[in-house]
Amino acid sequence: MVDDSILRSRSCRPHEVAGVEEYSGWLKKLGGKFKTWRKRFFVLRGSKLLYYTGPDEMRLLGEFSLEGTQAEMLSAENECNSDSKGYLFVVKPEDPTAFLTQTHQQFILCASNPEERKSWMRAIRKVLYLRHGGALFGTHLSEAFPFTKPEHGYHPRVVYDTTQFIRDYGMETEGIFRKCGTQHALLDLAEAYDEAAEEPILDPGQHSVHLVAGLLKYYLRELPEPVIPFRFYDRLKSTGFRIADGQDLAPLIDILESLPAPNYHLLQYLCQFLFEVSAL
Fold it and tell me: Which parts of the sequence belong to the PH domain (predicted)?
C-alpha cells in the first residue's frame, strides 16, 4: 500500500519532469561515406548528439536527433582500427529505411574502455527511455521517481517486478540472495528494463528466483548514490551509537524520515519486503 501523503508532501512527485544532464567526451566515429575511424568530441545535449573537433566546441562537425532512434552494443570487444582495440556501440533509427544525417544511416561509435561505453549507453538511453519508465540502471532515484507508475507502487519497475516475483515464486527458495544466475542472463534482463520493454519481462518458466534476486541486487548496486545517501551516514552512525538496546528509536526515525522522497519511499518498501523474506 502506498502512503499517498508521503508522495504529496514531498518535493518530487511522479508527474514532474526530470531533466537529463548534458554528457560529453571523446569517441571514435566510423565515417559514413569513407569507412575510416576519426576521433571526435561528442556532446549529448537535450535530445541531440553533436560532435566537434575538440572540447572547445569551436567547430561543429555534425549533429543529429536521438528521437526515434535506438542504441545497442555491437559486441564486448572489437577492433576500432588496426592499432588498438575498443568497445563499440551503434545509434540507429528504429525505422531501418531512415537516415540520421545525409551521409549516415547509423552512427557506429567506439569507446576506449567498457565503463566509458556503458556510461554513454546509459546517457543515451536516459534520453530515449527515462520518460517511459526505463533507463533505470545507473540512474539516480530522483531522476527515475517522477516516471514511476501507480501500478508499480511508485517504485522503479525493476524493483517492483523483482520483489513481486520473489513473493510469488521464491519465498521458500534456499539462499534467495546468496546464490545468483549467470551474468549474461542478468545483463539481458537489465537491458530489457532499461529499454522499457513491454510487460511482462520476468517469466517463471525462463528465469530462476536466484537470477531475479541477483537483478534486484544489481540495480541497487548500480545506483549512483545508495538508497540511504552518503550525506546521512555520519548522522545515522553517531545517533545509533548513542541509543542502547530497547531505548527510544525516535531520533533514528527522524533522520530516516528526512531522506529525499524517492529514497524514503524505496527504503520503506525494501524493509517491508526483507522483513517478509526473513520471517519465513
Answer: 20-129
